[in-house]
Amino acid sequence: MTLKLYGWFASAPALFVAVILHEKQIPFEWIEVDLAKGDQKTPEFVASNPFGEVPTIDDDGFVMYESRAIARYLDEKYPDQGTRLYPKDVQKRAAVDQAVWAELTQFYRFGVRILYETLNKRFFGREPNMELVEEAKKSLLAKMDVYESILSKQRYLAGDELTLADIVHIPVGSRLIEEAKVDLGEGRPNVKRWFDEIIKRESWQKVKPIYMNRI
């Protein structure tokens, strides 16, 4: 049975899971859940995701939500298939987890606020709050200074090998740079080098049409 991915075309977490599925070379079916129409609040969908959010996967009857947990599950189920997202060494794995949690609290929460206000609100017929955008941008760019320091010492966020910690940044980072026109790498050569590399990955190029064909 082909894995089913329930997502919304403008949901960064759903797009991230699609990237992971391509990285792991796992065939999947994308099933659109229209958040603007409230599809995520139907009893049928809430039965699979009690929070009424995307993404959710159905892996031959095993239903799971929360994008980062899904990524770890897929890497552990298919450890030798596609891109290895977590190293085998326990300390290196811990470094990946550390960077993934940092992404959620230091990058995603500011980046997704910018995307929601400047790009996604239009799908709900709402006006952007540019004051919130500027506050989020200021905070995010300050975090990018920390990223610059980390990436000046190593190629990737958790060391010198690509891991989940890098890939998790792709959907939000790409949309910030290419659509919201936030220059995350300005004055930060290592951040620029890193983003230039990860957003060109084949997995993201395969996923981008899910979003780009709808705007």
TrEMBL record:
Protein name, per record: glutathione transferase
EC number(s) from the headed UniProt entry: 2.5.1.18
Cellular component GO terms, alphabetical: cytoplasm
Any single GO BP term: glutathione metabolic process
UniProt-listed SUPFAM superfamilies: GST C-terminal domain-like, Thioredoxin-like
Pfam family, one: GST_C
Enzymatic class: transferase
Signal peptide: 1-18
